[in-house]
Amino acid sequence: MPRYSDELINEIFSQNDIVDYVSQYVKLRKNGRDYTGLCPFHKEKSPSFHVNQEKQLFHCFGCGAGGNLVQFVMRSEGLDFLEALKLMADRAGIILPDEDNIADDKAHQKKKQIYSMNKAAARLYFETLTSHDDGKVGLEYFKERKISPSTIRKYGLGYAPDNFDYLKKHMNKLGFSDDELLEAGLCVTKNGKIYDKFRGRVMFPIIDLRGNVIAFGGRIINAVEKDGYKPPKYLNSAETPVFNKGKNLFSLNLAKKDSAAQCILCEGYMDVISVYQAGVTNIVATLGTALTENQAKLLMKYSGEIILCYDSDEAGQAATKRGIEIITSVGGRCRVMKLKGAKDPDEYIKSNGIELFRKAIKDALPSTEYLLGTLKSQYDTDNPDGKIMFIHKAAEVLAGVKSAVEIDAYVKKIADETEISKEAIYAELKKIRSNDKSGSNIIRQVKMPSKEKNAALDSKIANAEKRLLGLVIDSKKAYQIVKEEFSPPDYSEGPIRKLAEMIYNCYETGENIEPPLIINKFDEKDADFVSQIFCNIETYKDEDNTLRKLVNSIKIERLSIEIEKATNENDVIKVKELLTLRLELEGNK
To answer: Read out DSSP for 358-370?
Structure first.
């Protein structure tokens, strides 16, 4: 990415007010020293989104999103850092230096070139489908699938003729070399020859949230087996500098515009297109792979609930189960659609119409109910053995549920259906959870509580360090009090230590603390963390006393971890020394 000087970036920040810009997206209200409103990045009813005009930062205390103005633009507009910075520069009337004169620009220029190549390829495929004789077979396919001309335009659908160098010749004429075509994944090589990757296929451009064509999916029209090889039905682009199939979703660029509280996730491009054409636009698909954590997190940015609508065959049901695991593992909520009498959404829409599809969305089963229902169908619960196996497997499902209320509701339901007591089901659940936590090894049983306690202590330390550094950032007096007892190496490793080093250095060198510039030094995840420290909303009656207590409590908690460690290692002498130190600190509270 091009490197601009801190001075230039700071000028861009100074000429743009974050409250003014964010107000275009969020209704802000002055609340003390901050402005607050409903977060634009997740669904909420009570305002947890804060904008600090003095520091020119935002932070949501609900979902954790935070950063400076450019990072807000990146999230809200789906832009990368350079694009967002340019947008803010244009808004302020600041002319950025010519990119060709900026160092370390190769990666950015390579991405721009691949975007340009993909756009040219998509245009050729679209024109071939809609205007050339070579595309008639593809157009006939879409007509048979009842895809309208307007939908073809909306998705930029196309056709790649069954010709080894149809695209290659066109792209060469535009000035792109064979090596560049290979790097972009538009061509492949075999036995020293270069030829088009997609041939004899209807084409589905994959478009990112910024409107860039990043890859393609292609469905073969007439698959002919040759020399024992039959081409795959669907073929997707290989990964390139602009495309990671586990981090993108088909049609999310269109679905994100829908205001629905849910987003439907299915498997096929045609499923998405058929449903979208019928009027349900909050639908996306994975890109030829199983759902990934990155895709689930991406979806959760735009919807409060994910509805799985996979094929009804065995593979589709396995994908549904895995999808539930992935979504719940990253803290998401999901339900499962059941499409009776059809193998996929495309077939269901054509047979039953959009209103019944909407009803199927409304009737989608909660993920736990779906899993339990699927399990029950696998066992004969009319006989004791089948009933025992079902109860055991059902308890395994419930062991992964966090809500006690949800667990109780399903235990009661299972008890009523199987005539097994709630107490027996809870006993099975307790046994499974006990095995997960402790296993059969007695040594492991003893050590697990220590690990859990250490994790809790680590959390206390992290919270105390954030509060401490937040106070130091806001006050040079606080820095003078803290620096003698707590230097940057004393903070935990990671972003908080890096931030401490930068803040302490500003005080020592006399430089101004510029939150928007500092936060630029962190990646997106760490920027969220750092913005929370900068946007600290806590107030204290006696800050001096609070500072000393925080330093003291961090030292005490760290000694507690060391004591646990020494105890597990049976180092009696060290335990005694550490206990003495902790008692001294506790006496200074």
So the answer is: HHHHHTPEEHHHH
Instruction: State whether CATH 3.90.580.10 applies to domain 6-101.
Output: yes
Contact 262, 361 (CB under 8 A): yes
- Are 310 and 316 a contacting pair, CB within 8 Å? yes
pLDDT (tens digit per residue) in 532-544: 888 876 666 677 8
Q: What's the pTM value of the predicted model, to 2 decimals?
A: 0.60
Cβ neighbours of 233 (radius 10 Å): 10
Cβ–Cβ contacts within 10 Å for residue 98, how many? 8
Tokens (6 digits) for 567: 């105890």
To the question of domain 106-236 being in CATH 3.30.470.20, the answer is no
Question: CA-based angle 315:316:321, to the nearest 5?
Answer: 100
Helix, strand or coil, per DSSP, at residue 36: strand
**Residue 12 φ/ψ region, left for φ over 0, alpha for ψ in the -120 to 50 degree band, beta for the rest:** alpha
Which residue from 250, 236, 154 is spatially nearest to 198, judged by alpha carbons?
A: 236
Alpha-carbon distances of 485 from 476, 542, 548, rounded to whole Å: 15, 19, 9
The two tokens of residue 346 are 């495309």
* Confidence band of 99 (pLDDT split at 50, 70, 90): low
CB-based contact 357:345 (threshold 8 Å): yes
Domain map of the chain by residue range? Answer: 6-101, 106-236, 252-363, 372-438, 444-587
Q: Averaged over 555-561, what is the pLDDT?
A: 83
Per DSSP, what are the bridge partners of residue 243?
Answer: 240
**Residues composing the chain:** 589
| Residue 443 half-sphere exposure toward CB, CA atoms < 13 A | 2
Closest Cα partner for 552 from 459, 461, 453?
461
Predicted local distance difference test score (pLDDT) of residue 452: 40
Q: What's the maximum distance between 2 C-alpha atoms anywhere in the chain?
A: 88
The residue type of 245 is K
Token output for 127: 């024109």
Q: Tokens 């073969």, residue?
A: 220
Element (H, E) at 331: none
320 contacts 306 by C-beta, under 8 angstroms: no
Where do runs of H (alpha helix) occur along 377-421? 384-399, 404-418
Mean pLDDT of 254-264: 82
One-letter amino acid at 556 equals: I
CA distances from 162 to 202, 391, 584 (A): 10, 55, 81
Q: Which amino acid makes up residue 574?
A: K
By CB neighbour count within 10 A (0-12 exposed, 13-18 middle, 19+ buried), where does 51 fall? buried
- Return the number of other C-beta atoms located less than 10 Å from residue 511's C-beta: 10
Q: Which CATH number applies to 444-587: 2.60.40, 1.10.3470, 1.10.1240, 1.10.860?
A: 1.10.860
Query: 252-363 is classed in which CATH architecture?
Result: 3-Layer(aba) Sandwich (3.40)
